[in-house]
Amino acid sequence: HAVCQGILQRMADDVSLYAVLEQAYGLRMASAEVTIGAGLAEESEARHLGLSLPTAVLRMEQTSFVGDGQPMEFTRSTYRGEGYRFYATLYRSQKPFWHPVEEAASPGVRA
Length: 111
Prior knowledge:
Blueprint: H1 7-10, H2 17-25, E1 31-40, H3 43-49, E2 56-65, E3 71-80
Antiparallel strand pairs: 1-2, 2-3
């Protein structure tokens, strides 16, 4: 909490963390990297989630960044495995995925 002194006092159940970070501390999320995977619940996770062992869980890690690329938040979450779906909307970049390569003519071969 060194950068965000008093953040816990500003948080409430109906308040967005990102709204507090932006409005109170000037930290605006520009991008995030998310990793999602499945695994077996550890004993403490199973207890907190009301699961019996062994049980599959869904794990997510997210690092959020401000505009200059500095990390502003790291989250590690574990979810019950049933009832979750992954959804993403993908957009093609305006940049080409490939660059044309000029073929070098072999000696004695005319193009």
